[in-house]
Design goal:
644 residues; mainly alpha; globular
Length: 644
C-alpha cells in the first residue's frame, strides 16, 4: 500500500513549494524512491508496536477495578515506549556500527524494498513471487483463523492415543506438552522466525524448549513433583491448594493490601510445575547474559567503547559506515534530552496515575534495564533473539514494593519496555544503514511514529474492554478474546505484588528453589566457557552452543502454547539448513521475500478477521473442524489428575 500510494503521489501532486511555520517545503521533490519508502516504514513501526503498558493497564482495570484517567494512561503508554530510545542513542556505536552485529530480523524488509524499487525488468519475477505468496497466505489464512481452526494444531500423538490421559497431555499443543503436534497455521509456524533467524540460534532455542517441554515438565507432572498433578500441566494461572483458581479477593483488604489472617485461612498460592520452572529459567537467563557478554563478547565491547572514546574506530572501513559518513549524526545531547524529558513525564505520571511506585523505583528499574541493554543488544543483533529482564524486574520490585501490585506491574512494564524499545530503535538504525538513510531522519521518524502509537493503542484497548470485557475473563485459552498477556500480568501481580518474594521464596515455600536460577545461569555459562577453553582448536562442536539462548528457549514455555514448537523448528531446519546449503542461489534470491510474503498475507487476514468477524460479534457455526469443546479434537479424557 505504501508503495502504491507513494508512486501515485509522486505522479499527481504538483511540484511546488509551500511554507509551513516559516519552513519552505517541496510538495513533490522528485521520484518516489526506496529511502522515502523505508523512512515511512520506520515511522510505521514506531506507531505499530503494541504498547507494553496495555497489559498492566488492562489487568488493573479488569482484575482490580482500577481505571486510570485517559490522559495519564496515554502518558504511561508513551513513556514506556520512548524511554528506551534515550538509552539506544547512547549505545548505538556499539550496537549499530559493527558489521558483525547485522540484525537478521530486518533483512527480509531490506530484500523486499530492494526488489520493489530496482529496475522492473530485473525484479518483476521476484515481485510476482512475493504477491503470489502474500495473496496465497491471505486466502489460506481464513481457514485456520476462522473456518477450520483445527489446522492450527494437529495433535497426532493425542489422536493416536485417544482416551489415554498421558497421550492427551504429551500430545496436546493447547493444554499439554505438544509432542508431535503439527501446525499448518503460519501464526504458529512463524514462532521461531524460521526464514531469517540463523539456524544455529534456532537450534539452541529449540534445544532448550524441547528439553523442558518434552522431558523435564512431563517428568515433573507424572511423578507429581511439587504437587503438579493438582493443576493443569502448562497453566500460567495461580491456584489454591484444592486445585481451583486462586481468588485474590479472599486475601485482600479493601485498600488492595494483603490480609495475612485471610491468607492463612484460605490458601497459599500454587503454580503448575511448568510455570514454576519458567521463573527458574527466566532468572537463569537474565544473569547468564551478563556473564556471557563479558566472557564471549568482552573484546568487541571493549574495542567499540575504546574506539568511540578516542574517535578512532576499527569499523570505519565497513562499506555502510563509509556511505553514511557524509550525513550528520544525531548528537548524544538529543538522546539525553529525550531520556531526561521522558523520565520527568514518567515520574509525574506515577503520582498522577496513582501507580504506587515512587520516583526512585523508576530510576532503579531504568538503570537495571540500561545495564542489560548492551549484552541483550549484541545477542539480538547476531541471533535475532531478545533476553528480557522482566523476571528480574519482578523479583526486585516485589522485594521493594511488596503489597503494592500497581507498583510491581509498573516496574515490570518499564523494565521490559525500556530494553525492548531500545533494541527496536537500534534495529531500525541498522535498517537505515542498509537503506542508506541519514541518522537524523530516522530519529525524527521513530519519535514521531512512536508518539502516535499510544493514542491508537489506548483507543483499541478501550473498545475491546468495553465490548468484550466479560469474555476476556473466561477460562477458554483458545478464545478470540482470551487475552493471555493480561491474564499473565494479573498472575504476576498476585505473585510479586500482593504476596511478594518473601512469601513465595520463604523457607516454608515449595518454590524456594526457584531463586537458585540466579546462580545456575552464570554457572552454566562458566561451564560452557571452560569447555571451549579446554578443547582449544577442536572446539568447533561447542562454538555454536549458546547457553543464554538455550535458557531463553526453556523460559518461553508455558507462556506460549507448545503448538508453536515442533513445526516452526522443522521449517527453520528446512529453509535455513537444507535449502540454504543445497539451493543457495534460490535461497539468496527468494528466501527473505518468501518470509515477507507469508508475514504480509497472514497479518492482513488477521486484521480482516478482527474487523469483519470479531468486532461485530459474528461467530463461525460449529462443525467437525471447529468443535467448541476442543478445536483440535484432542478431547480431555476421563482419569485426568487435574482440571482442564
Amino acid at each position: 500500500m505504501i508503495r502504491w500510494m507513494g508512486s501515485l503521489m509522486a505522479k499527481h501532486i504538483p511540484n511546488q513549494q509551500i511554507s509551513v511555520f516559516g519552513f519552505d517545503c517541496d510538495l513533490n521533490p522528485g521520484p518516489w524512491n526506496p529511502k522515502e519508502h523505508a523512512l515511512i516504514l520506520v515511522a510505521f513501526w514506531g506507531s505499530s508496536y503494541t504498547a507494553g503498558g496495555l497489559g498492566p493497564l488492562s489487568a488493573m482495570e479488569l482484575y482490580y477495578g482500577k481505571k486510570m484517567g485517559t490522559g495519564w494512561a496515554i502518558l504511561f503508554l508513551m513513556t514506556t515506549q520512548l524511554l528506551g530510545y534515550g538509552f539506544a542513542g547512547l549505545y548505538r556505536d556499539v550496537l549499530v556500527r559493527p558489521p558483525q552485529i547485522y540484525y537478521p530480523g530486518v533483512l527480509p524488509i531490506v530484500s523486499l524494498l530492494n526488489a520493489m524499487h530496482r529496475d522492473p525488468s530485473t525484479t518483476s519475477n521476484i515481485m510476482r513471487f512475493f504477491w503470489v505468496v502474500a495473496v496465497g497466505a491471505f486466502v489460506y489464512g481464513w481457514l485456520p483463523s476462522l473456518v477450520w481452526p483445527m489446522l492450527g494444531s494437529l495433535p497426532l500423538l493425542c489422536w493416536a492415543g485417544a482416551g489415554n490421559w498421558k497421550a492427551f497431555l504429551m500430545g496436546s499443543g493447547t493444554y499439554g506438552f505438544g509432542l508431535f503436534d503439527v501446525s499448518l497455521d503460519w501464526n504458529y509456524i512463524s514462532f521461531f522466525a524460521p526464514l531469517y533467524t540463523p539456524l544455529w540460534a534456532n537450534a539452541n532455542r529449540f534445544a532448550g524448549a524441547a528439553f523442558v517441554c518434552w522431558l523435564v515438565y512431563p517428568i515433573m507432572y507424572f511423578v507429581d513433583a511439587s504437587g503438579s498433578q493438582r493443576f493443569p500441566a502448562m497453566s500460567t494461572d495461580t491456584w489454591d491448594e484444592s486445585g481451583d483458581k486462586y481468588n485474590i479477593s479472599f486475601i485482600l483488604n479493601p485498600d488492595s493490601t494483603l490480609n495475612h489472617t485471610a491468607l492463612a485461612l484460605y490458601s497459599a498460592p500454587y503454580w503448575s510445575g511448568s510455570y514454576a520452572m519458567h521463573f527458574f529459567w527466566g532468572f537463569a537467563a537474565s544473569t547468564a547474559i551478563i556473564v556471557f557478554a563479558i566472557l564471549h563478547h568482552g573484546k568487541l565491547i571493549f574495542a567499540s567503547l575504546w574506539s568511540n572514546r578516542h574517535l578512532k574506530r576499527s569499523d570505519d572501513s565497513d562499506p555502510y559506515v563509509q556511505l553514511m559518513a557524509h550525513a550528520p549524526r544525531v548528537p548524544h545531547s538529543w538522546y539525553i534530552a529525550l531520556l531526561v524529558t521522558c523520565l520527568a513525564v514518567a515520574i509525574a505520571q506515577l503520582y498522577g496515575g496513582e501507580m504506587q511506585l515512587p520516583w526512585w523505583g523508576l530510576l532503579l528499574i531504568a538503570g537495571i534495564s540500561a545495564v542489560f541493554t548492551l549484552p541483550s543488544g549484541i545477542l539480538f543483533g547476531i541471533a535475532n533473539m531478545q533476553i528480557s529482564v522482566e523476571n528480574l524486574s519482578e523479583l526486585i520490585a516485589g522485594t521493594l514494593f511488596a503489597g503494592k501490585p500497581m507498583a510491581v506491574l509498573t516496574c515490570m512494564v518499564y523494565g521490559r519496555q525500556i530494553l525492548a524499545q531500545c533494541l527496536n530503535m537500534v534495529s531500525d538504525l541498522k535498517f537505515a544503514f542498509y537503506m542508506k538513510i541519514p541518522e537524523r531522519h530516522v530519529f525524527y521518524a521513530q519519535v514521531y511514529g512512536t508518539m502516535l502509537g499510544p493514542f491508537v493503542n489506548y483507543a483499541c484497548m478501550r473498545l475491546i474492554i468495553e465490548s468484550q470485557g466479560p469474555e476476556m475473563l473466561t477460562d477458554n485459552p483458545s478464545g478470540a478474546w482470551a487475552a493471555p498477556r493480561t491474564r499473565n500480568y494479573y498472575s504476576l501481580s498476585v505473585i510479586w505484588g500482593i504476596l511478594g518474594p518473601k512469601t513465595i521464596f520463604g523457607t516454608d515455600s515449595p518454590y524456594r528453589w526457584i531463586i537458585l536460577g540466579l546462580v545456575v545461569g552464570p554457572a552454566f555459562v562458566f561451564l560452557w566457557w571452560a569447555l571451549r577453553k579446554r578443547l582449544g582448536p577442536t572446539r568447533k562442536c561447542v562454538d555454536h552452543i549458546n547457553p543464554v539462548i538455550i535458557l531463553n528457549g526453556a523460559a518461553s514455555f508455558p507462556i506460549f502454547p507448545t503448538t508453536n514448537l515442533m513445526t516452526s523448528f522443522l521449517v527453520a531446519l528446512f529453509f535455513m539448513g537444507y535449502v540454504y546449503r543445497y539451493f543457495p542461489a534460490w535461497w539468496s534470491k527468494c528466501n527473505y521475500v518468501l518470509g515477507a510474503g507469508l508475514d504480509c498475507g497472514t497479518q492482513m487476514v488477521q486484521l480482516a478477521v478482527l474487523l469483519v468477524i470479531n468486532l461485530p460479534g459474528i461467530t463461525m457455526p460449529y462443525w467437525w473442524g471447529n468443535d467448541p469443546v476442543a478445536v483440535d479434537r484432542c478431547f480431555p479424557p476421563e482419569g485426568l489428575p487435574s482440571k482442564f
